[in-house]
Design goal:
heterodimer; A: alpha+beta; Proliferating Cell Nuclear Antigen; nine-stranded antiparallel β-sheet; five-stranded antiparallel β-sheet; 7 helices; elongated; B: alpha+beta; 2 domains; 6 helices; disordered C terminus; Checkpoint protein (chain A); HUS1 (chain A); nucleus (chain A); HUS1/Mec3 (chain A); Rad1_Rec1_Rad17 (chain B)
């Protein structure tokens, strides 16, 4: 089992400034899953609870001279502490001579002090002007063949795409709004309609607090808003939409929703919300443009899947 | 939001405000514990929010109608309702963080006697809230604050200095004596408990600190530390930053009244009229009043 690659400048920037800070908020520990062509950072994919998040990178977006081999179809997966990874990366960068350009990352087995058993590390190596620096980040033992297979299936299972996606309103204001909502309740109803409406509501015995965003951009199945709905309350509008089959509603944890919005630290250009068929989960897709264009950057992607809370109804 | 036309004619009050942040500041200053019920009283002059604790401490926030950009009052009498103060603040906070300038509409009552809030600045993005109100338990016990004599016993001190003094008195603890004396004109805070601590504000020594002073005879009363602390513990940062003053008055029976002024100006509009006493356009100020009952005293010869 071998993994060795050099991080590109673009890759360093992406990881250090955007991806790692965002993913760290999602959860300290994640799986790093490496294949011949892609690298994935995966949260909670092997557990039932929690926000599933998938950050996928083509190898070219992060690395050059990418070499991987394993007897499991050249796939390697292990778990890693993101804040340690982030710290190690920053410390290497601080010492690195930016002209030398070579920042090596590799998987090694080392004998830690006071131990007789070698344990795996993800190691960064860089050469500075007069010095060289090596940072070892402890990682878990590689996942078993069965677990890797399960991870692989979980990544692939994202094919169950929502029929309708609506573009999120400005993320920073949505983020601060949901931050405030956290104080009011734990469960949030989220509705997405084919008319381009996104409705968020917390309802407790003491308060109903919500936000309705209308006329958002729609991807996938769409429908024209019904004129007679205009004078109605947001809640009634959602109910009517659901009855007509033009809207879907699910209940999710406010904390999960807030976590998924933390991905805005990765500086996406926009985000889309959608509800998977049969209300299986709420999905949030973050879209990144090739810098200076309005063209989607296909070399990496980030999305979250929020588990739906069972409310006992419908 | 809901069948607007029908509600409009029935609402006791529909008002709009453009500085949610300032209102949150004002309300936070009377929030001294996590779970507090507040009594809200509506009138043609504005909204008063009253919070009480065990009959010894009462705070009032006055939001005069001038603070609102629209104030349509249609009730007869003065509608009163109870609401959870913490929830009200948390709820207002979600409106204020929405970014950019935002206009918030308050409406009472809703179809089920709720307090209804919604943002009205954007047609395609609406934040709304319906807060359940409760029937106020009993008529709020009104502090009959009467002057202690012909000359008011009062002093005005920098809010920051007052807060600092009261914070420092935490160390000696439970009971704090406040004395005013005419010669030399000074205010003395004294705490005795785990140790002694005395803080003197001398009028002549530092007129910057003690801005105004009025006292014709020596007077002194003791107050529970935790109640004194409540009067300054959540004073908004804007008050300290604007270098405002707080006024303290001792009334009949030793009742202590402390008044703060909280700016509810839109942060984007700088006000040119800030002098050392913290004077701003009166229309953009919320008034906060605290009333603290003195401890029952064995000897207090100086007061009637």
């Amino acid at each position: 089992m071998k993994f060795k690659a050099f991080l590109t400048d673009n890759g360093i920037n992406l990881l250090e400034k955007r991806i790692l800070p965002a993913l760290d908020k999602m959860g300290r520990v994640c799986h790093l899953y490496l294949t011949r062509d892609h690298a994935f950072f995966l949260h909670n994919l092997l557990s039932v609870d929690g926000v599933h998040s998938v950050a996928q990178f083509s190898k070219e977006s992060l690395f050059h001279d990418y070499r991987i081999s394993s007897n499991n179809d050249d796939r390697i997966a292990f778990s890693v502490d993101l804040s340690l990874l982030h710290r190690a990366l920053r410390s290497v960068l601080a010492v690195r001579d930016s002209n030398s350009n070579a920042l090596l990352i590799k998987l090694v087995k080392k004998l830690p002090p006071n131990s007789t058993q070698a344990t795996p590390f993800l190691t960064f190596e860089a050469r500075g002007h007069r010095s060289a620096v090596v940072q070892d980040v402890p990682v878990s033992k590689p996942l078993s063949r069965a677990d890797v297979h399960e991870l692989h299936l979980a990544v692939e299972s994202c094919e169950q795409l929502p029929a309708t996606l609506v573009m999120a309103p400005e993320l920073s204001s949505l983020h601060s709004f949901v931050d405030g909502m956290k104080h009011v309740g734990d469960v949030m109803g989220v509705s997405v309609s084919k008319y381009g409406d996104l409705h968020l509501q917390i309802s407790t015995s003491l308060i109903a607090l919500g936000a309705e965003f209308r006329k958002l951009k729609v991807l996938g199945e769409r429908a024209d808003p019904v004129a007679e709905d205009n004078g109605l309350s947001a809640k009634t509008r959602v109910e009517r939409g659901v009855q007509r089959g033009d809207a879907m509603s699910v209940q999710v944890s406010v904390k999960h929703f807030f976590k998924s919005l933390q991905c805005s630290l990765a500086k996406p250009d926009c985000a889309f919300f959608g509800i998977a068929p049969q209300g299986a989960c709420l999905m949030v897709f973050f879209q990144f443009f090739v810098p200076g264009t309005r063209v989607t950057d296909k070399s990496f992607s980030l999305h979250c899947k929020l588990p739906v809370l069972d409310t006992g109804s419908s | 939001m809901s069948s607007a036309a029908a509600v409009d004619t029935e609402a006791d009050l529909v008002c709009e405000l453009d500085s949610v942040r300032g209102i949150v500041d004002a309300l936070c200053s009377v929030r001294w514990k996590r779970f507090q019920d507040a009594l809200v009283e509506l009138s043609e002059h504005g909204i008063v929010i009253i919070v009480e604790e065990t009959g010894c401490l009462q705070a009032k926030v006055y939001l005069q109608r001038e603070l609102f950009i629209k104030y349509d009052y249609a009730a007869t009498g003065r509608p009163r309702f109870g609401v959870s103060l913490g929830l009200f603040i948390d709820c207002l906070n979600t409106f204020s963080v929405h970014g950019r300038s935002n206009v918030l509409e308050l409406r009472y009552p809703g179809p089920d006697m709720q307090l209804m809030l919604r943002s009205v600045d954007s047609p395609d993005a609406c934040i709304y809230a319906e807060i359940r109100t409760i029937i106020p338990e009993t008529i709020s016990w009104d502090y009959n604050f009467e002057p202690a004599g012909s000359t008011p016993l009062s002093f005005t001190v920098k809010s920051a200095a007052l807060k600092e003094a009261i914070d420092d008195l935490e160390w000696p603890g439970s009971s704090i004596q406040i004395s005013l004396q005419p010669a030399p004109p000074s205010v003395i805070f004294r705490g005795e408990g785990h140790g002694d601590l005395q803080i003197d504000f001398n009028y002549y020594a530092n007129t910057d600190l003690l801005i105004a002073f009025s006292c014709d005879r020596q007077v002194s009363h003791r107050y529970k530390y935790k109640f004194l602390r409540a009067t300054t513990s959540n004073i908004p940062a804007s008050v300290l930053k604007d270098n405002r003053g707080s006024k303290a008055t001792i009334g009949r029976g030793g009742m202590l009244k402390i008044q703060h002024l909280v700016s509810v100006a839109k942060p984007s509009v700088p006000h040119p009229h800030i002098d050392s006493a913290g004077y701003q356009q009166p229309s953009r100020i919320a008034y906060i009043e605290f009333f603290v009952k003195p401890e029952v005293e064995e000897s207090n010869a100086d007061d009637d």
